[in-house]
Fold:
Amino acid sequence: MTSAKKRKADLQYGVITLRNVIGYNHLCDIVEQENAPRQAEQKFEMSHFTAVIADDHAIVRSGLKVALENERLVDGHNIGVVAEAGNGLDAIAAVKQHRPDMLVLDVSMPVAGGVEVLVETRRWSPDTRVIVFTGISAMGKVSELVEAGVDGLFSKAEDNQDLYRNVPMILQGGRYISPFFTSILDNAPQQSVLTDRERQILNLIVAGQSNKEISAHLGISAKTVDRHRTNLMQKLDVHSVAQLIAYSLREGLIDPAAEI
Amino acid sequence: MTSAKKRKADLQYGVITLRNVIGYNHLCDIVEQENAPRQAEQKFEMSHFTAVIADDHAIVRSGLKVALENERLVDGHNIGVVAEAGNGLDAIAAVKQHRPDMLVLDVSMPVAGGVEVLVETRRWSPDTRVIVFTGISAMGKVSELVEAGVDGLFSKAEDNQDLYRNVPMILQGGRYISPFFTSILDNAPQQSVLTDRERQILNLIVAGQSNKEISAHLGISAKTVDRHRTNLMQKLDVHSVAQLIAYSLREGLIDPAAEI
DNA sequence: TTTGAAATGGGGGATTCACCTCATTCAGCC
DNA sequence: GGCTGAATGAGGTGAATCCCCCATTTCAAA
Structure:
């Protein structure tokens, strides 16, 4: 009971958009399922695997398709790409329909992001191995993915051989995070030292709201917002709104394309 | 003479990094060369073309290589990829060495960006047709590329058929900007209403510097910086640093990955 | 049960920001 | 020569920021 409450708190302010899209009670259900043991081991003897590819760039999808279906790259494994998706919703639909052995996923996609697709895949097709192949390096997103239980995590900026070599192991139930990302996680100095409330207020600050506006929005005193702001800046070692926003950008906390 | 001076002014503060890397007098020389007529017509009868691919993601390079070398995609044209580059400097080196018929280029690359590679290519291999294939949509970068005289401009977010279909025409001396980007250029409201100095100060503001720091950096009074800041915000119709940064991000004036 | 972390709020002060008005210099243009 | 636009700089005002001080309450962990 207490652990459920804690989990609830952990998810509450993680990323605002995520909470708005599917609701955080729903999210808790997903985490319950995700923590249940998976039965991927029964596929040990199979030689043919199905895959779904989700990336907003067609050139990446076609490149991945060629690479995955060429057994000389992914050694000894016969992989067939049964569906491609150019956005998050299409990816979720494809997973529901095909329930593939693996899903290769980008993080930044239109309509629904990689994290949403990951948790929805766990819900509708828990046996699907989810491999995230992305160009981002923002610490926030990376830790989100790992906490959500991604099975494989590879960077587009690195040599693809790392991906091809580890696909068989992941298909057999293994889990692999590329050194590119583990070093990002290791080098995170204070990472998630921010409290839920601080994270929430950071989102409103970078949205361009003043202390007064934030206080009205949250129904608390402007002085309290100021208090949180001070703690925030001390923790992150920045000394102005501009630096605060620059930090948030690097960590992927805000969406550059979002309107003010 | 007057037009040359005007061009000089246009380039002076376009993007600070660009000016720092190669110097703006050098840039003017490149523009002179770029405006000179090209002699690509002599290749009308050739059946084999050489290409260099530059993209920081290996999966995109391999996908492009497969697509370009498949004559069913690029109809009737035999294209051979003679070199690949994962960053801007490698791309420039490859162009110098191979002087290819075409260069397929991404905009956001490590070490040197797509615009720098484009102007350097014009300098060292003026006959090379430069095709930019990118995922960005920031108005600033797009207009920069068009002004620099890119031969083809295609979006990764759109259907790749548009690229494949137009490569032969571009190889024969044509020029093609995808509708995806022309609509971005058309919808630009006021674009370059900012003066050179204002653009420069905007860059320092979004870098997190205070008026005092900026005044010290530029050797002018803090009051003058304040003056520019006020004009800046009036022109862009924003009322806080946060909104200012959000604007700069949308227009691609700053690099989200840059350190403070 | 104590301890501590987190959220809440208040007072105050130094600094900076945002936005006025006004003036000068210097370049290019008709 | 006069005009315009850009850059420069001064003075001032009200608001907001940044950072101290202080306190209470709640809740979970030791």
Q: What stands out?
A: The longest strand of chain A covers residues 78-85. Chain A touches chain B at residues 56-60, 62-64, 66-67, 133, 135, 156-157, 159-160, 205-210, 238, 240-243, 245-247, 249-250, 256-260 (CB under 8 Å).
